[in-house]
From TrEMBL:
PANTHER family: PROTEIN ARGININE METHYLTRANSFERASE NDUFAF7, MITOCHONDRIAL. This is SAM-dependent methyltransferase. Pfam families: Methyltransf_28 (PF02636). It comes from Streptomyces montanus. Keywords: Methyltransferase, Transferase. Residues 352-364 have a biased composition (Pro residues). GO terms for molecular function: protein-arginine omega-N symmetric methyltransferase activity.
Length: 391
């Protein structure tokens, strides 16, 4: 890639490191991307920023969990990767008064509490780690895609090797994948002759054909572990991870690692100048009892629809019609096929029934339809859309 260096790391631009170590420093180090004053919203747009309808739908989900919990004295809403606190603030504002009186928000974020968030609002606690033993909802909107990962790539012999990177984005192949990395690849994202014994290079039989040179995969077990730790902080309630995702039957052959800066997709360079993100293998993250559905399915179950208001309303109440029309446009963006609507929702109940309905079954092979876009969308890849292309 050969991009210039902004010099955020302890090491020089010439130091070779795995992508996991390089991204950890570039995103969360002292001068990392997520510690910049403009926050994530200065560089990309999530469902939270697209419309307040998203926070209102999540608030309705929190109310369902409140009912399932028997209306506890304290109802927690834990916002993982909270940014500037937009989601947790919006959810608390959207709650009915009785529920809001018992609700407490926790914004989990590496960066400090932003000045824009009213310090007098003691309903929101700013913290570096999710609180343990709470009851309520833990919500991770586009958090897992920023948990740093190592990357594997097949060499000329079809052997998956770790990808090393310099601070300027230049890459090189390192040692063959081994240990937990090899085990995860073999189970969730096979690239060829990956073996989990001491000889991780594998042994090709005479009739074996190695995969093409240059196949790539992001090694996802750090995300699996991060999600399991987050879920374990709930005493009872619901954990939800929302992200662009892929599943085992349709992994992207060349990986998904990319960068974002000021609303545009850029080459991934671990120098602190851009976001570093990769799609999430949500099926690998899922714990027993979890459900997978699309954002479109989830939001429609929570009352968000892109249907147009009746035209008669334009005659009886023009202002209300305009407001309803604007809301329908925002709802359409949140549920759009090929965009935010195809994001995956990983729903993990903890000690309560799942408050979201299971999605209908996927169409039979060869048929089309919107029943299961998480499973069938455009080769199985759910894309993050640059700001300039979203509309």
């Amino acid at each position: 890639m050969g991009r210039g260096s902004a010099g955020v790391g302890q090491g020089s631009a010439g130091e070779w490191r795995g992508w996991r170590q390089a991204a950890e420093e570039a995103l969360y180090g002292p001068c990392g991307f997520y510690r910049r004053p403009e926050g994530p919203a200065g560089h990309f747009r999530t469902s939270v920023h697209a419309s307040s309808l998203f926070a209102e739908a999540v608030a309705r989900l929190l109310c369902r969990v409140d009912e399932a919990l028997g209306r506890p004295a304290e109802l927690a809403f834990v916002d993982m990767g909270a940014g500037h606190g937009e989601l947790v603030s919006g959810v608390l504002e959207a709650l009915p008064a009785e529920v809001a009186s018992r609700a407490r928000g926790y914004a989990v974020e590496h960066a400090g509490r932003p000045a824009a968030l009213d310090d007098r609002d003691d309903r929101i606690e700013w913290c570096a780690e999710p609180p343990a033993g709470v009851r309520g909802v833990l919500f991770a909107n586009e958090w897992l895609d920023n948990v740093p990962l190592d990357v594997a790539e097949t060499d000329a012999d079809g052997v998956p090797r770790l990808v090393l990177v310099r601070e300027d984005g230049t890459e090189s192949l390192g040692e063959p994948v081994a240990g937990a990395d090899a085990e995860w690849l073999a189970r969730w994202w096979p690239l060829g002759p990956v073996r989990c014994e001491d000889d991780v290079r594998g042994v090709l039989k005479e009739d074996d054909v190695p995969p093409p040179h240059g196949l790539r995969a992001e090694i996802g077990h750090p995300r699996d572990a991060a999600w399991a730790r987050a879920v374990a902080t709930l005493d009872r309630g619901l954990a939800v991870a929302v992200d662009y995702a892929h599943l085992a039957d349709a992994r992207p052959p060349f990986g998904t690692l990319t960068g974002f800066r000021e609303g545009r997709e850029v080459a991934p360079v671990p120098d602190g100048s851009c976001d570093l993100t990769a799609h999430v293998a949500l099926d690998a993250c899922a714990l027993p009892g979890a459900g997978l559905l699309t954002q479109r399915e989830a939001l429609r179950a929570l009352g968000v629809s892109g249907g147009r208001p009746p035209l008669a309303l334009a005659s009886t109440d023009p202002a209300a019609y305009v407001r309803a029309l604007a809301g329908a446009g925002e709802a359409a963006e949140l549920t759009a096929a090929g965009g935010l609507g195809d994001f995956g929702w990983l729903v993990q109940p903890v000690g309560i029934p799942n408050p979201l309905p299971s999605p209908p079954p996927s169409p039979p092979s060869g048929e089309t339809g919107e029943n299961g876009p998480l499973r069938r969308a455009r080769g199985g890849l759910l894309v993050d859309v640059p700001d300039d292309e979203e509309q």
